[in-house]
Amino acid sequence: MSKIKSTFLLTTVLAGGWLPSPAGAATNSVTFTGTVTTTCAIAIVNGTGTLAPNGALSNMSSKNPGGVPATVEITTTGGVRVSLDAVSSATVPSADLSSTVWTPTYSMLGAQSVAETGTATLMTGSGTRSMNVHLTGTKAGADTFMGGTYAATVTVRCE
Question: Which region is the signal sequence (predicted)?
Answer without folding.
Answer: 1-25
